[in-house]
Design a protein that fits this description.
Four Helix Bundle (Hemerythrin (Met), subunit A); globular
Length: 114
């Protein structure tokens, strides 16, 4: 049997075992991949892609915690909104501090995965 053929069922089984919070954590982990690529090569397109990827992610995070239907406790929603604003401000800087953004992604991913 081909390795790719056996990897697909294993990957599907792994995805089925993850909790919704772990799936959310993986979004932040994937966003950090674009940052690592940008930091390793320092290419303008990679940096622009990392900035755009992370801006989209944190725009969504901010919109979700600002939604009145969000079930999170108000103090937690406020803290997440403050964090989102800080990351979005950094995304707007030229150049953005990708290390800071990466650290925030790691912190959120770690909290969600835990």
């Amino acid at each position: 049997m081909h390795a790719a053929t056996t990897a697909r069922p294993a990957a599907a089984a792994y995805r089925q075992r993850r909790t919704p919070r772990q799936m959310e954590a993986e979004v932040f982990i994937r966003a950090n991949r674009s940052i690592r690529e940008a930091l390793s090569g320092q290419e303008a397109t990679a940096i622009a892609r990392a900035r755009a990827d992370n801006r989209r992610l944190w725009d969504v995070v901010l919109a979700l915690v600002m939604d009145p239907a969000n079930q999170l406790p108000a103090p937690l929603r406020s803290q997440v909104a403050s964090l989102a604003h800080a990351v979005l401000r950094e995304c707007d800087n030229d150049p953005p501090d990708l290390q800071f953004i990466s650290e925030m992604n790691d912190a959120v991913a770690g909290g969600l995965w835990g």
